[in-house]
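User: Run a structure prediction on this.
Assistant: Running it now.
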Amino acid sequence: MKKTLKKSFYKHRYLVIFATWLYIISFLFAASWSIKKTPASIQQTFEKYIKQNEAEFQRFFKDNSALQAILKNQNIPKKTSTLFK
């Protein structure tokens, strides 16, 4: 059994080397990715997301036909269906 494992390890040692390199590369990628995500950049991303959703919200509530359709449990007109993605 010991001899078989040893033989198998020597036969497939390139897999261990390859796995080690993949681990090192993934670690470097994760480290560089976290450096780019500073608190300021995360705040900027959230602010952009909130502004986009607020604009969509305002656009929806300016459309009276869509609001009337919702209140009456009817289908929303096709021109406003693009608001819902």
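The two ends are 60 Å apart (CA to CA).
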